[in-house]
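Tip: read the tokens left to right.
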């Protein structure tokens, strides 16, 4: 699966089957996650893989009491140690960059999972202390979120997205017209429409050719 397909096919899965995620696939997903970009080359993330039912129950209660969390075959807790980032960039910026790093890692995890046909869901924790105490996470390490991994019971529908034309500006805020092309972002939509029209025309031509009766040539007798 190519990158663009993975991005567009990714869904937040909240209804998992009981099928286990093979360790080999889980390792591949985590290995891909570890290749995410990081500010200043400081890779501040670490992962706790949770499969124990008791710990999953704890995480479900700690993530706004969302019941579906505990039914995920695998839960990955994404942790962060921002000490090096804070040392180089100051406390405020260091914490901000650390959060950006783990966000990039979590998105990479979601896309890697999609590539392997594994469903995923990014969730937040609101009772961090309970999780920290139960799983013996050091005080200097923050919990930035959890990712649920498993095989989806059904294909989730796509949620409607924002109109690109309303959220894309050029050179300055709220300037939606690009100097070199006043049709942006219409070009992308026109290209998609043209491709779809081409497909439909192609299908009609094929259908017409297939449905057209083939008349056998009559042989003329020589006198």
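Filled-in amino acids:
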């Amino acid at each position: 699966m190519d990158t663009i397909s993975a991005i567009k096919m990714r869904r937040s899965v909240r209804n998992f089957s009981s099928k286990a995620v093979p360790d080999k696939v889980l390792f591949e997903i985590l290995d891909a996650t570890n290749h995410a970009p990081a500010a200043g080359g400081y890779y501040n993330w670490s992962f706790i893989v949770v499969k124990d039912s008791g710990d999953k129950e704890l995480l479900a209660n700690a993530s706004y009491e969302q019941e579906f969390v505990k039914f995920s075959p695998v839960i990955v807790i994404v942790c962060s140690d921002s000490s090096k980032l804070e040392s180089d960039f100051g406390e405020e910026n260091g914490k901000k960059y650390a959060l950006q790093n783990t966000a990039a890692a979590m998105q990479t995890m979601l896309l890697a999972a999609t590539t392997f046909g594994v469903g995923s869901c990014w969730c937040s924790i609101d009772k961090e202390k309970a999780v920290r105490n139960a799983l013996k996470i050091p005080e200097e390490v923050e919990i930035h979120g959890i990712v649920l991994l498993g095989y989806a019971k059904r294909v989730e529908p796509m949620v409607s997205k924002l109109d690109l034309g309303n959220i894309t500006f050029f050179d300055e805020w709220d300037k939606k017209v690009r100097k070199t092309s006043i049709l942006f972002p219409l070009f992308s939509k026109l290209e998609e429409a043209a491709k779809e029209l081409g497909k439909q025309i192609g299908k009609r031509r094929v259908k017409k050719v297939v449905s057209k009766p083939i008349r056998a040539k009559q042989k003329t007798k020589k006198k």
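The chain has eight helices and four strands. The longest helix spans residues 186-211.
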